[in-house]
């Protein structure tokens, strides 16, 4: 079975200028992936005839399927239809089916069909018309030398309906499409390069129909296994076996699979056990609590938190001993351990999580440079604390600290070292 390769071309100056976010290409990529079509490139063009025609020609060289969005409106800056007519040596003529659908669409909305709108029903005579049930711009389907070009409106709700109800069904009739199966393994507490080194032999022995991708974010890595074949159940079994052989190599860093980020995994565990969490944050300024409460229903297990940013507040509100701060400073294992224990007790929780550090860009010393962070978790079986040496970037340090603090909580919950 031949793999179908696709390119997505998005047209519009507003996207190049950064005035509009290209959500269309993202959505189309996911929809094609669901149907076994692999996107090999995404291109953005402004409203420039030369650039559009050039992009079409380049896409034809390396893709079987080219999907185009944008530039199909009735105004002078919408030139996609003209460019397609030129590219396919086609003449723009009234399309009877498109005109009937346009008249019906306008009548149902009690709107008059003026001449500018009527031009929406004129299409290149070498295309097949695609119905637009959500707007006035008809889609177009071209076939050139075995390559399929599909033009759709740029308005997202119009494009999505056209793609789902008309384009995808026709593509499934046109191509014999493979099955694509994805499985995600979620990890933290290890860098991407160290992870790759640990699993190098395993990765080098993956079967030809299975590909691995690393998808890192702040302190978190998703490993995506993608398997290609004809039967999804066979692919699921194959990938399950590969993961079984992978986990012994990296189990200490794995916290879950597929769509659930760390804050969801932690919440599920706490809810199942009917246990409560409280958080004391200094350097992260409430970001850990934000991550925890971003999950719907987190009130089931999150009792509350405090941000005692100044040392005085660590003493007055949280009960950290002045002697501890005097002897060790706010950025220390001793202080963060007291913060974790005290917030747990004061909020009547089973678990206390705490952070204290130097996020930057200033405030560092030779002994405690910017990026020095202490995190701690206090629970029924004791306290875990860890020193982090992070970056000189404040935002990165806050985000990394939040993820690693949640991971030390996860490790405590599941007793994983």
Please give the CATH class of the largest domain.
Alpha Beta
Count helical runs.
16
Spans where pLDDT lies below 50 across 5 or more residues: none
- Helical content class: 40-55%
CATH fold name of the largest domain, please?
Molybdenum Cofactor Biosythetic Enzyme, Chain A
Overall mean pLDDT stands at 95
Cα end-to-end separation = 45 Å
CATH superfamily of the largest domain: MoaB/Mog-like domain
Trace the largest sheet across and list its strands.
2-1-3-8-7-6
* Major beta-sheet overview: 6 strands, mixed
Task: Label the CATH architecture of the largest domain.
Answer: 3-Layer(aba) Sandwich
User: What's the number of domains?
Assistant: 3
Q: Approximately how much beta-strand content do the residues carry?
A: 25-35%
What is the global morphology?
elongated
Evaluate the radius of gyration: 28 Å
Annotation, overall tally of beta strands: 17
| Sheet/helix structural class | alpha/beta
């Amino acid at each position: 079975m031949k793999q179908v390769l696709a390119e997505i071309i998005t047209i519009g100056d507003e996207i190049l200028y950064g005035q509009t976010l290209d959500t269309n290409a993202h959505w189309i990529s996911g929809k094609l992936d669901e149907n076994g079509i692999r996107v090999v490139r995404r291109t953005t063009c402004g409203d420039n005839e030369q650039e559009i025609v050039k992009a079409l020609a380049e896409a034809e060289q390396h893709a079987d399927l080219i999907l185009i969005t944008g530039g199909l409106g009735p105004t002078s800056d919408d030139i996609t239809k003209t460019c397609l007519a030129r590219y396919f040596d086609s003449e723009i003529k009234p399309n009877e089916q498109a005109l009937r659908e346009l008249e019906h669409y306008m009548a149902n909305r009690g709107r008059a069909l003026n001449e500018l709108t009527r031009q929406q029903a004129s299409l290149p005579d070498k295309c097949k018309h695609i119905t637009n049930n959500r707007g006035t711009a008809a889609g177009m389907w071209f076939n050139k030398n075995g390559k399929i070009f599909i033009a759709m409106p740029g308005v997202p709700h119009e494009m999505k309906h056209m793609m789902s109800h008309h384009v995808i069904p026709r593509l499934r009739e046109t191509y014999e499409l493979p099955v694509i199966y994805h499985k995600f393994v979620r990890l933290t507490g290890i860098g991407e390069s160290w992870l790759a080194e640990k699993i190098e032999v395993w990765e080098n022995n993956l079967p030809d129909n299975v590909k691995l991708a690393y998808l890192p974010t702040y302190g978190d890595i998703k490993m995506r296994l993608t398997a290609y074949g004809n039967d999804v159940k066979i692919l699921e079994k194959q990938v399950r076996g590969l993961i079984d052989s992978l986990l012994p190599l990296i189990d200490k860093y794995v916290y879950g699979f597929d769509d659930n980020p760390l804050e969801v995994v932690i919440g599920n565990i706490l809810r199942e056990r009917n246990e409560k969490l409280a958080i004391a944050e200094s350097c992260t300024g409430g970001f850990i609590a934000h991550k925890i409460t971003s999950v719907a229903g987190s009130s089931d297990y999150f009792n509350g938190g405090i941000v005692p940013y100044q040392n005085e507040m660590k003493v007055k509100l949280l009960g950290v001993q002045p002697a501890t701060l005097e002897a060790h400073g706010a950025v220390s294992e001793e202080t963060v351990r007291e913060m974790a224990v005290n917030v747990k007790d004061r909020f009547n929780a089973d678990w206390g999580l705490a952070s204290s550090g130097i996020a930057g860009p200033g405030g560092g010393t030779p002994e405690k440079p910017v990026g020095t962070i202490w995190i701690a978790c206090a629970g029924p079986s004791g306290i875990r604390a860890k020193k982090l040496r992070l970056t000189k970037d404040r935002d990165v340090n806050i985000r990394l600290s939040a993820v690693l603090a949640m991971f030390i909580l996860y490790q405590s919950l599941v007793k994983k070292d």
